[in-house]
Amino acid sequence: MAIEVPDPQPVSRPSIGPATRAAPDGLGTMSWQNAVRLAVFQDLVRVKTSVLTRLMAGSLGVFLAVMLLAGFARDLMIVKVGPLGLGYLLILGLYGMCWILGVLYVRIAAREFDPRAKLARRERRVA
User: Fold this and answer.
1) How far apart are CA 42 and CA 121, in angstroms?
2) Domain assignment of residue 15, yes or no
3) Which listed residue, of 36, 49, 80, 117, carries a Cα 20 to 30 Å from 23's Cα?
4) Distance between CA 110 and CA 125 in Å, rounded?
5) pLDDT per position in the chain (127 positions), as tens?
């Protein structure tokens, strides 16, 4: 029993014009190519990359350390610390670390990223 598959129909796609987008603050449009060339925008990306790289490296390092301990130091992970084993405490510590890093990121974003983003919008208005 053969199944007939119809010929595929060509998919019509809308033509892609210049990379412009209306600004949400009513400042008109600006091409993304021009926006990324602004020095203040490049500074924003540089600062964000620096902060995120450090946060990711630290959190991934802690995750890797806990995984290595769980895999290769089982005797250490079963040591009782109060009513729980050390392994359980380390896992709870990972949850705590994630929350702390989330709060830290929000505080850094409010202090470092938001003023730079506002400055980039203001500079775009001038450009």
Assistant:
1) 13
2) no
3) 49
4) 22
5) 667 766 666 666 555 555 555 555 555 556 677 778 888 889 999 999 999 999 999 999 999 999 999 999 989 998 999 899 999 999 999 999 999 999 999 999 999 999 998 988 888 766 5
Q: Which domain holds residue 120?
A: 39-126
The one-letter code for the residue type at 111 is R
Q: How many CB atoms lie within 10 A of CB 41?
A: 19
DSSP 24: T
Query: How many CB atoms are closer than 10 A to CB 44?
Result: 19
Q: How many domains does the chain have?
A: 1
60 in any annotated domain: yes
Question: What residues pair up with 105 in beta bridges, in sequence order?
Answer: none
What is the C-alpha to C-alpha distance for residues 30 and 18, in angstroms, rounded to an integer? 10
Amino acid letter, residue 30: M
Residue with tokens 């602004």: 38
Q: pTM of the prediction?
A: 0.67
Domain annotation covers residue 29? no
Please report whether residue 64 resides in a domain: yes
